[in-house]
Specification:
By secondary structure, the protein is an alpha+beta fold. It contains 5 helices and 10 strands; from the N terminus they run H-H-E-E-E-E-E-H-E-E-E-H-E-E-H.
């Protein structure tokens, strides 16, 4: 969910967005028409209640609980994704235990949400600022709790890094996964800081004799669970600036607070 190129479709010009533009044509030819865009369609039956609790929220309910297109969260403006969402939902990790840190989309992970809604938040005053991918997912039974457990397991197993495969066209190297302070919201929460090797120089021939770039990029992930629903916030920075610390995650707090307040009130 980095490195060399920013996550596809997440903003004006994050690194992965530039990769997404290049991959979009490939995705179309490969059958992008077959993608659902995430979530459970309103015309599908809602999952039945399980012994573990009430039924998970539907896509309609998550949409009502999500920040709306044009809504403000501090300095950040919220928008919806074109084509249903970013291309990076199909990115995979090696080893597989690290997958939850990259994507929890049903097509590439062992988790299948009952419904999913995505938004992105950006500061319109910044051309090279932070882009936040906001994702609300509901799960049947203990699915949400298992997601949180998988994230914790992945963070421990993948501390020394792992590889992210982007549609079999580009591979990004995570150099480190660090657990940072998470907000005290919901039933439980986790937050991480990722260090990624910037391979842009490798592609343009600017990486030196070794053929590998020494520049680093950073991403930050915060996930909050409330009952059977998870709220994830992934922040990406266009440049190489590290805006996070071990004492606090770098996901803009205004975005987290605004989304949590609307969700909690729904």
């Amino acid at each position: 969910m980095v490195g060399a190129e920013k996550r596809g479709g997440r903003g004006r010009g994050p690194v992965r967005d530039r990769l997404a533009a290049a991959l979009l044509a490939v995705s179309v030819l490969a059958g992008v028409a077959g993608c659902t865009g995430g979530g459970t369609a309103d015309n599908k039956p809602s999952p039945a209640a399980s012994p573990a609790g009430p039924p998970p929220r539907t896509e309609r309910q998550l949409t009502a609980a999500a920040l709306s297109d044009g809504e403000r969260a501090g300095a950040y403006t919220v928008s919806t994704y074109p084509l249903g969402g970013p291309l990076d939902t199909d990115y995979t990790a090696a080893p597989a235990v690290c997958q939850p840190l990259v994507s929890l989309a049903p097509g590439v992970s062992g988790f299948r949400p009952a419904a999913e809604v995505g938004r992105r938040a950006e500061d319109p005053r910044e051309t090279l600022g932070v882009t936040v991918d906001v994702r609300l997912r509901s799960y049947a039974g203990q699915g949400a709790a298992r997601v949180m457990k998988a994230l914790t397991t992945a963070a421990r197993a993948c501390t020394g890094g792992f590889t992210e495969d982007r549609l079999s066209l580009v591979r990004a190297t995570y150099l480190a996964v660090e657990t940072v302070k998470a907000p005290h919201l919901g039933d439980d929460s986790v937050a991480y800081r990722f260090t990624i090797r910037d391979v842009r120089g490798e592609k343009s021939g600017e990486s030196g004799k070794s053929g590998k770039s020494k520049k680093k990029l950073y991403e930050y992930l915060t996930v909050v669970r409330s009952g059977s629903t998870t709220l994830s916030f992934r922040a990406e920075v266009t440049g190489t600036k590290d805006i996070g610390t071990k004492d606090a995650g770098a996901v803009p707090v205004d975005v987290i607070r605004a989304q949590w307040a609307k969700f909690d009130a729904s």
